[in-house]
Amino acid sequence: MAFKRNRERKRTIELVSFMDMIFILLVFFLVTSFVIRTSYQERSLYVPTPKNTLGRAQILIQLIGNDRVFWMDESASDLVSKIEENYGYLSPVHLRNKILSELIKQNSFSFNKLGEKLENLRTRAEKNPSAKFFVLIRSPNDMPYFRIVDIIAKLSNTKYRNINYGCVGGTIAQIKKCKRIYIVAEKDSNGKKRKNIRIDF
Amino acid sequence: MKQFNYKKILLWGSVVFFIIVILLLGWREYAISQLPFDDLRIPPLGIEEKLEIPPRPGIQGIIIRGPEIHSLVFEIDLSKPGVRFLDWNALTQIDPNTDVKVSCRVNVRGRLVFSQADILMEGHTEAGLMIQRALRTWIYRPYKSGIIRFWFNLPSKGRKLIIDITGLRRRGDIPAYVPVYNGKLYSIDGIPVSEVQVGKYF
Predict the structure, then answer these.
(1) CB-closest option in A10, A37, A196 to B66
(2) In a domain, A124, yes or no
(3) Which residues of B touch A82 (CB under 8 A)?
(4) Cys-Cys link to B164, which of A191, B13, B31, B149 (CB 3.0-4.6 A)?
(5) pLDDT on residue B131
(6) Does residue A43 lie within any of the structural domains?
């Protein structure tokens, strides 16, 4: 039996496939190079991000529960300074607790009364078109969204659009456990010295 | 049919591929060189990039705008009944060489308190008594208390009345952020402002 001679076949390269591969590589590198160029162009774009600053407001509305809110405006300043004067001998923690318990006791009310307060604010804003008001709304994450929408609807329904508002997540427990609550004297944008309340978390 | 030369094609293909790679690497280097220095570092692979969420305003603290702070002025409260003026012209007529020193204490109610021992009026008794009578009626707004000293020195060529207020201290229960300024510290009729000095003299 004669064995078939295993002849070595001549090896060749398929030129078409080879060129295909070269062009695919060429296209790949060109595309990735353009990605670098695009990011270089995008680098000059300014993307504003929130600044790491204290939230400033004239009025703080803290939603407590389903039917309670805590309202703090400039009238709270006198109460805080009075407690600071009368109970200055307390430790910082006890002083904080005293201030907050008094504030919450005197300035917590139902949503119905909040409606009245917001109505008064709206009247004030409409009587004084040049005045600017900023309301900070703090709400726990589990608060029904319609509560916040309701407040925003009342705030935005002003004639001169001079009530601005901002929403931020937060609970009354966080305020109660704040590092410190105290009076600071600061100059406002008009150069008037004001007795502001500062809450450090 | 012409046979492909395997070695020749491989050689040329490698050369072409090498040239393309060199060109692309060159282009990449050029693109990177256009980037700012800070962006040149390419993060190593495998390390997960973490984006820091920027804190929102109101997370780390809140400032509620309070009422305007009105400054207080420590001065003679002319609205109080009984506050009398010292007649400067009468004083100069009685004793043109008046040299009287009075050291008083302003109490927490703003009244001037002093005794005979606090008055130095040697040789100028009449003028001294006139000054005393007026000083006893003066009431200050109760924002400061402590020692206040008056030196009536009529023969001087400069200031004829010097008021030393270095011993006055603002009331303790006035918060530190409320400024207390000094207003008109004397109730004297007929004295030119240029002849009064408020400050330290002893």
Answers:
(1) A196
(2) yes
(3) none
(4) B149
(5) 93
(6) no
